[in-house]
Amino acid sequence: MKNILLVSAGMLAGCASAQNHNHFNQYSIEVAAGLSHSVQPQLTGLRHFEGGFRYMHTEYWGIKADYGFDGYKTPYGEGKVTQVNRISAQAVYNLGRKLRISDVAPNVFNFLLHGGAGFTLLKNNEGNYDKGTNVLIGGTAQFYLSPQFALTGDLTGMLNFKQNYRYDSTGRYGYFTGTTAALSVGITYYFGRNGATADWH
């Protein structure tokens, strides 16, 4: 998995350094925050943050590298806290362009699909931690604000493999797959020398 992440990061860096032959800006920075929800056990809270860099190779396909944080606190007992940090490399598909949403509502609304894999570090306030891999899939609704900015709403589900500790800090015998979801609102900032972007032009 580390090799996959290194190769993905190298590809992303190579894309970012390549000469732009398109007539639209291909690069963007994304930040978002919102709700975290775990399945084992059922815990929900406003403790989600994520940020990333995206490169759109064409109007339809791109790749992004991102970091995400989720915090889970039990509402009972001493209020045990579990922190989940993850990094991932994800493919991005511009579904809105495929559906020709821009023909109906130009510079109003767009929709992206994204999915990939990465590495997760889970740690609780009792000093226990898990290291494992993750798989993510999600969708991002975009609302046009200006040539440089878009408002986003995202729903992403994630599977964490080979966990020993649940999100309430309790342990289990043997490995299991943790399941989480995040609902967030954020901002995308587009940059480059062109006036249009891959999402909106």
The tally of beta strands, per DSSP, is 8
Describe the sheet with the most strands. Answer: 8 strands, antiparallel, barrel
Work out the helicity level: 10-25%
By secondary-structure content and strand pairing, the structural class works out as mainly beta
Low-confidence stretches: 3-9, 11-20
Total of DSSP H or I helical runs spanning 4+ residues: 3
Beta-strand share of residues: over 45%
The coarse overall form would be elongated
Task: Give the ordered list of helices and strands.
Answer: HEEEEHHEEEE
What Rg is obtained from the alpha carbons, in whole angstroms? 18 Å
Oligomer: single chain
Task: Compute the separation of the termini in Å.
Answer: 35 Å
User: Residue-averaged pLDDT, rounded?
Assistant: 88
| Strand line-up in the sheet with most strands | 1-2-3-4-5-6-7-8
Overview of the structural elements:
This protein has 201 residues and is mainly beta. Helices cover 12% and strands 61% of the residues. It starts with a helix and ends in a 10-residue tail after the last strand. The protein has helices at residues 2-17, 95-98, 101-104, and strands at residues 27-38, 43-56, 61-73, 81-93, 109-124, 129-144, 149-165, 171-191. Residues 3-9 and 11-20 have low confidence and may be disordered. The chain is elongated. An eight-stranded antiparallel β-barrel has the order 1-2-3-4-5-6-7-8.
How is this fold's topology laid out?
Layout: H1 2-17, E1 27-38, E2 43-56, E3 61-73, E4 81-93, H2 95-98, H3 101-104, E5 109-124, E6 129-144, E7 149-165, E8 171-191
Antiparallel strand pairs: 1-2, 1-8, 2-3, 3-4, 4-5, 5-6, 6-7, 7-8
